[in-house]
Specification:
mainly alpha; globular
């Protein structure tokens, strides 16, 4: 809040693009803390400021905030509202960039894929993720990019939920290979998540030994990255403990991995931006854009 107070004194008003960015960042913090009411309030204030400052709703900064509001709706299970917000964000991006074939546009398409996945429409989810994948592969000149790995991982999740375990293993493994080449280290949140998702596929296949191995690798990696009190570490620990316990039971019941996927949707708000590097890039671009714009006005 101190930065916000300073900005207001510097600009002499709250109606400034740079202040909007600060308010948007405070919304991110509220989102990370699970305070969706406060996050929505802050994002809406940021949106209102930008609409006044830019004099139009057809602006990239507006698209980012709409996407953030879509994230809140998605996390709260309001998929109708989330889809509406994402589609508006998508329409703005297409107008701003003059094409659908842009890396930033792929982010919103990916978000719409999330909604389809959560609603069990795996055909639509696969279609959207594949479109997102095609765009980022063209944008980055091939598959050696973390955004490509992220989308492949999402396709792996859809394949698992749709019962195509062989395809799921293939996609998760490909995603992991790219991540490891891109980051040059196996100690990274994105890799830990892919290991967890691969473990979930093995669990669904009934290959509990492989599932336990992947969950263990993911847990070890999370222990290297986060505190043991971090929700990510605790989540994987719980998955592993449940697997070990249920392995011993003759009436093994799978945990609700679809719900787990839903909970993943705003991992992106963690400082390491664990859900989709592309989304972090989008937000950083938005912030930088506003900084440069304010400098240009001086």
């Amino acid at each position: 809040m101190l930065n916000l107070e300073i900005d207001e004194k510097v600009y002499g008003t709250r109606q400034h693009a740079s202040i909007s960015v600060t308010i948007n960042n405070l919304g991110d913090i509220a989102m990370m803390q699970g305070d969706y009411v406060e996050a929505r309030k802050l994002y809406n204030e940021s949106l209102e400021i930008d609409e006044k400052v830019f004099g139009t709703r057809q602006h990239y900064g507006i698209s980012v905030i709409l996407s953030n509001l879509g994230d809140i709706a998605k996390m709260q299970g309001d998929y109708v509202e989330a889809r509406k917000l994402y589609y508006e964000s998508l329409e703005i991006d297409e107008k701003v960039y003059g094409t659908r074939q842009h890396a930033e546009v792929s982010i919103t398409i990916n978000n719409l894929g999330d909604i389809a996945k959560m609603q069990g429409d795996y055909v639509e989810a696969k279609k959207l993720y594949n479109e997102s994948l095609e765009i980022v592969e063209k944008a980055f000149g091939g598959q050696e990019h973390a955004d490509v790995a992220f989308t492949l991982n999402e396709l792996g999740v859809v394949a698992r939920l749709d019962g195509d375990y062989e395809e799921s293993v293939k996609l998760h493994s490909e995603s992991l290979s790219i991540y490891e080449r891109v980051f040059g280290s196996k100690s990274h949140p994105h890799i830990a998540r892919s290991l967890r998702d691969l473990g979930s596929t093995y669990k669904a296949m009934g290959d509990f030994e492989s599932a336990r191995l992947k969950y263990s690798e993911s847990l070890e990696m999370c222990g290297q990255i986060f505190e043991t009190s971090h929700w990510r570490y605790l989540q994987i620990k719980q998955l592993l403990e449940e697997l070990i316990m249920k392995e011993k039971e003759s009436d093994f019941e799978m945990s609700n991995d679809a719900e787990l996927d839903r909970q993943e949707t705003w991992v992106a708000s963690v400082p390491t931006r664990e859900l989709g590097i592309a989304k972090e890039t989008k937000k950083n671009t938005f912030k930088n854009f506003n900084i440069f714009k304010s400098k240009g006005k001086k």
